[in-house]
Amino acid sequence: MAIGIFGLIPSSSPDELRKILDKLSTKWGDVVEDFESLEVKPMKGAMTNEVFMVSWPRKETKFGSRKLLVRIYGEGVDVFFNRDDEIRTFEFVARQGHGPTLLGRFPGGRVEEFIHARTLSATDLRDPNISGLVALSRGKFMRLLDFVQDYEYASYNPIAYDIANHFCEMVAKYHSDTPHILDYTLYPGEEERRRYICNYLTYSGEEPREEDIEQLLDETEKYTLASHLFWGLWGIISGYVNKIEFDYVEYSRQRFKQYWLRKPQLLSFYPSS
């Protein structure tokens, strides 16, 4: 069943959203002016916000429609990050040619450029060719900004933490019927981790030294513990404040379980209890 675009947002925001749509309609000139004709489709995989693809019909139907993305902020998630910082990161990255353009903001959400692309699946991330491209792109992007997977959580992080978080994400299937279930048998083995790190280190154009590879391999594994702690705490808090349909508590339990399982193996100088 179709969802009206104004039915997505808080009751205090329709006027602000209408102003954004009016501005875009004038800018583009080829879309219909009847905002009620916009088709809205929920997108899967979001755990912090609700995300919708909006199809805006053109006046000449043979040209199809324009696409927008409307992001509705999750309830209570501002406890994790500063929205103004997030928007600054969003706009900075967009100016560098990475990611979508911000088209407008309204209380409780924003409108973004829709990127016609396919989200990489867990299987895609294991493909050596795709993984190599991801590593090279991450290396180039690191020169701009380090960031865990979303603009909301962007920050200046150690390289090893960012890569560790990437490896941890490879055990998840967020677009499945059980997005909260993590399969740690899918965690990349040493050969796969080494290949990714080698590809990452080549972004400078020089052949990486073996000692640099070994050091980053070791640091990355240790930083998986920080990733488990961060997202474990995120799951606990999200379970209380966010109304998105996702089993945050079970997700959190699995992350903490991995933390306690891996800690004595990775930090042998710590007691196991």
TrEMBL record:
It comes from the Eukaryota. Pfam families: Choline_kinase (PF01633). SUPFAM superfamilies: Protein kinase-like (PK-like). The keyword Cell membrane does not apply. The keyword Kinase applies. Keywords: Kinase, Transferase. GO terms for molecular function: kinase activity. Belongs to the choline/ethanolamine kinase family. This is Probable choline kinase 3. It comes from Camelina sativa. The lineage of its organism: Eukaryota, Viridiplantae, Streptophyta, Embryophyta, Tracheophyta.
